[in-house]
Amino acid sequence: MAIHDLENAFQQKIDNEIKIEPKDWMPDAYRKTNTRQISQHAHSEIVGMLPEGNWITRAPSLKRKAILIAKVQDEAGHGLYLYSAAETLGSSREQMIDELHSGKAKYSSIFNYPTLTWADMGAIGWLVDGAAILNQVMLCRTSYGPYARANVRICKEESFHQRQGFESLLVLSKGTKEQKEMCQDAINRWWWPSLMMFGPKDSESTNSDQSIKWKIKRKTNDELRRQFVNMIAEQVKLLGMTLPDPDLKYNNQTGQYDFGEINWDEFWNVVKGNGPCNEQRLQARRKAHEEGAWVREAAVAYAEKKQSRQPNEKTDAA
Amino acid sequence: MKIKIKKFYYGDIPGDEAGESIASPTITNDKAWPLWEIFIRSKQGLDHKHAGSLHAADAAMAIENARDVYTRRQEGISIWAVESKNIHASNPDDAESFYEPASDKIYRHPGFYQLPDEIKHM
Question: Which of A39, A197, A217 lies closest to B19 in CB terms?
């Protein structure tokens, strides 16, 4: 089949909502974009463990500590679902991890902001995971099968993340004066970076909407961001807190919230690696990888030794 | 195909390099843990179903890792781990001819047979 016939057949499948599976023919750019996007998503989950891991030892109660550990463990799991989805496209795990550690691969910029107080754990769950859920719910319907299935799994677990975050802030919002201030301060610091998670404005980019044509993405950055603002602007009222945007106002005509301009200089600065914690995050990942090297090697040595001793050992399938 | 995606979508930060090195052959590291496919039985009476894959040094570790990765909320009561290299698969390119023999045999379906209304529940 000529290449353009293959491309036409491919697009036809996409148009008919038939998922693309690993061994199917796909255009090179489709493979590359999915690899980039899925590995970035995986890296974000893994790096995302760091700002929260920072508070595990200092969680205010055993209950909160157990919840936080469970949440961080979920992030690790999400990273693993996604890495294996990306591997189906031909990249090896080592290659992806190397690219993260060398700074070549990107991850969500939100994790380059520091977590200064306990209230940040609540704000991250509510705002950051809230923003991530909107993207991931959309991605449950993405055209690449393994990525869609990974997102279905993720979304089932992510709802707990957002709910525990909101509930944690709710407790603070009913607490002492200091707790209330801490709650508002965390919201103030995480609001704008959360809005930035959705990426540049649609009008910023003159590039083709190929990802939409291929149904890798089904909503634009601005569509998702608007959905997020409408949701959070209502929820914040239940906390009795405010969002740090004087221009945030319900628009009776559109039935949506209008909101102020994002600081795009800050956005690009953090994307380019100059955020408050970019270097720290990568260092922590590299350190964990290097210090874990002996464990990985020992496990291989142990497996080899065991196999050489009992070549015929097998457990019957249950 | 000349398409190059440069548009910056949520969760897809474009870059000249980021994640685009797959054109080069995949690095194979001898020390890397092999890949395993994980199948999970969610409850007694149901089939094991493919859940996903993971890396592990050996079968015992694959099963333990599968428990941690795929059953954190009691999604399973039994796990199969199969090293991915041992899975043999049909070729999607041949799907049309491979499955063609079944396509014209509608008489294999119960609805093919017209029976009198008096016969209920057959």
Answer: A39
Which residue reads 């980039």 in tokens?
A36
Helix (H) or strand (E) holding A303: helix A293-309
Cβ of residue A74 closer than 8 Å to a chain B Cβ? yes
Residue B6 belongs to a domain: no
Are A263 and A193 within 8 A, CB to CB? no
DSSP assignments along B35-99, one per residue: EEEEEEE-STTS-EEEEEEEE-SSHHHHHHHHHHHH-TTS--SEEEEEEGGG-----GGGHHHHS
Question: Does residue B4 belong to the interface with chain A, where contact is any CB pair within 8 Å?
Answer: yes
Model pTM? 0.90
Q: Find chain B residues with C-beta within 8 A of A37's C-beta.
A: 9, 11-12, 19
pLDDT one-digit tens code per residue, A187-238 = 999 999 999 999 999 888 756 688 999 999 999 999 999 999 999 999 999 9
First to last CA, chain A: 44
For chain B, the domain total comes to 1
Tell me the per-residue pLDDT of A302-312, one tens digit each, with 9 for 90 and over: 999 998 987 56
Residue B44 sits in a domain of what CATH number?
A: 3.10.20.520
Three-state DSSP at A52 gives: helix
Q: B79 lies in which domain range? A: 32-86
| Cα A151 to Cα A301: distance, rounded to the nearest angstrom | 34
DSSP letter assigned to residue A61: S
B29: which residues sit within 8 A by CB, 6+ positions away? A92, A94
